[in-house]
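Hi U.,

Before I forget, here's the chain from the pilot set. I'm dumping it here mostly so it's searchable later in email.
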Amino acid sequence: MINDELLEDIMIIEEEMESYEFDIKEYMDDFGEYEITVISVDKLLNMNSETITYIGDNYDPYIFLMKPKLFDIYNTRDVLFEGYVANYNLLDKVIINEEVEADIEFIEYIDLRHPDDPNTIIYSGPAYKFTKTLTFEDGYQEIRVEAISKAGNSGSLVRRFYVDTTPPELEIEVKEVDYENLTAELEITMRDNLGYLKLMLWDSQIYEYDYPPCYSRACRKEYNIYCRY
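Structure:
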């Protein structure tokens, strides 16, 4: 019996048989959830039964993570995770950062567009949308997003980004003043977590320090300038 529907086929058991096989593929699709009940009847019409649940689904999911983008930099500790899972008919849950379960919503049909190129459709069809906001400390983040089906299959990806809520530091020390020429020598020290610094004098950029973000150590640069006052 499958999902409370009695099958027409009956297996006759011989006394010397210790194991039995019965092919029920024709009664089931590849994907779906089924309750399978096996009923045994002896010659005296005594009956016994056992029910199991079978779940069939694809092995690998398609995970489309729209937010956060790869290597994005956030000046807030609250970061929204938003994306879609496709190729799973029976999605059970989406886990973010190994332990946080996202909110999921099934969508019968959607055209997913590339987050960097809205004119490009990267997927069309049914999907599960997931969302969750997580809070992080300042620093470089590597966060795993895992999709798990009710059949026990799973797939995941890792998204890397930065959180920096600490403002840059600026120290200015006057080294020398020339009162006759109305000029001064300044020693400027700048620090920032992400390794990017820009120094402006009025509306003019006089210095820029731009390296790939790295949280192994904060960026510190000293710069001497002469300015007229």
